[in-house]
């Protein structure tokens, strides 16, 4: 990475920080006579979610030094919002808990914050709200602590989903394997076939979401009366390692079995090692190979089949 590019990226992050700080300032500062500072509100928030809370844990969560934390708790204690006490299990540990007044104060702050953020979100259409929340999740994933168990949901496609499938296939496979626009065109034709055949009970399509964000897809098409065809398996890099690919393949195979097919086939290429491992684990066997270069690089086309 050259110095000019680094400077541009640093400047972009700083610009975002200024914008975000101004938005948060509007939401958090409140009127000039607001009764609680932001650090005080953060303490009440933490205590509302764990009562009692060891003072050492509170300091770590809010990144406070010992002296500042002590002064902050003393102010809240003098206002009758929290109490400090020694742990019954270890007298060296000090615990802090909210009083009834402290819990009431948090309820007011929490309601006010929800109203303010709701007002911010209502400025945007639903689609833009989803874009905003998706971007926030992305930032959280990259700079925060990743969740080990994000919620995985498989659902039918909604309007716009198959367009997303085409776009992500084109972008990901061009970046990772050098496939050209002819591959994206093929994906678009397959997606169009699914849309045209959406009333066929022997066909289905799934979109995978992790914590509400689209991260994958798969479809079960009809090769002939007895053979289903697995199509358009897609997995975003951010979803790898969460079992999404295995779940998609399992769902697709189960659908084909339940709808009376006697076998399922799929086409892939030899460079897609992760996908091939999923197919092999599901019981598919390689039955045919052929070299081709229809999408730019020289590839080996593979046909895999699973008998039911």
Task: Give structural notes.
The chain has 308 residues and is α+β, with helices and mostly antiparallel strands. The protein has helices at 3-29, 38-49, 55-62, 66-78, 100-121, 126-143, 161-177, 181-196, 244-258, 273-281, and strands spanning 53-54, 82-86, 94-98, 152-155, 204-210, 213-222, 227-235, 263-269, 285-292, 299-307. The strands form two sheets. A seven-stranded mixed beta sheet has the order 4-5-6-7-8-10-9, sandwiched between helices. Strands 1-3-2 form a three-stranded antiparallel beta sheet. β2 and β3 (94-98) form a beta hairpin. The two termini are 52 Å apart. Residues 29-33 have low confidence and may be disordered.
Q: Which terms summarize this structure?
A:
single chain; 308 residues; alpha+beta; seven-stranded mixed beta sheet; three-stranded antiparallel beta sheet; 10 helices; 21% strand
